[in-house]
Amino acid sequence: MNPILPEAAQRDLVLASRSQRRMDILRGLGFEFEILPAGDGVEDSATSQDPFERPLECARLKADDVARRRSGALCIGADTVVILDGVALGKPNSDGEAYRFLRSLSGRTHTVVTGLALRRLSDGLGLSASERTDVRFRDLTDGEITRYVGSGEGRDKAGSYAVQGLGAALVSSINGCYYNVVGLPVSLLFQLLKKAAA
Predict the structure, then answer these.
(1) pTM of the predicted model as reported, rounded to 2 decimal places
(2) How far apart are CA 21 and CA 82, in angstroms?
(3) Of 93, 38, 31, 84, whose CA–CA distance to 61 is shortest?
(4) Percentage of the chain surpassing pLDDT 70?
């Protein structure tokens, strides 16, 4: 249990995600939770074309999908995107695409958006919000990008990097919630959990 929140705010938690990063953050905060990923392709039914709104819709879809299987549980859905010039950079399909993503981010500021949703069907609870963080990359050389891509760390990450790993060396500054860039905005999560228990 997390000692900061009342027990009622963290009872029967289910994480609707396969993300090791999100699991690690929750465990580090002392939460006890079940892991039940949303079904494959659930987010494909999202209709929003706005890259800043889509993560929130996807988070809701994930939480709803899992809540239908665990109606009494408080299900946590999350979705993170990297946005540059109004375009979302998702997980790269190849090392070549990862290289292109990182080259476009080099020396520039991008925005990381995470949508976060809590859903419990037994009492109709539904809460959601999103967090934005601006991240600036330092100027990267071709060799640095090639070596980072070769490490494989960014292959399953939005924007092709992991700020909590080797990717920290790519970043010159972060304006906002660091944990949002990792994939789970902690302050926002606590706000929503407190509302859920009110």
Answers:
(1) 0.93
(2) 16
(3) 38
(4) 100
Question: What is the rounded average pLDDT for all residues in the chain?
Answer: 95
DSSP string, 18-53: --HHHHHHHHHTT--EEE-PPPTTGGGG-----TTT
DSSP single-letter state for residue 139:
P
Residue 115, Ramachandran bin (φ over 0: left; ψ between -120 and 50: alpha; else beta): beta
| Domain 7-197, CATH number (from 3.30.460.80, 3.90.350.10, 2.102.10.10, 3.90.950.10) | 3.90.950.10
Q: Which residues, including other chains, have CB under 8 Å from residue 7's CB and lie 6 or more apart? A: 1
Tell me if 61 sits within 8 A of 43, measured CB to CB. Answer: yes
User: What does the block give as tokens for 163?
Assistant: 């700020």
Instruction: Name every residue whose Cβ is closer than 8 Å to that of residue 93 and which is 6 or more positions away in sequence.
Output: none
pLDDT(165) > 90: yes
Mean pLDDT of 50-67: 96
Longest dimension (CA), the chain: 54
Please tell me the least confidently modeled range out of 20-29, 41-50, 133-142.
41-50
Residues with a known catalytic role: 79
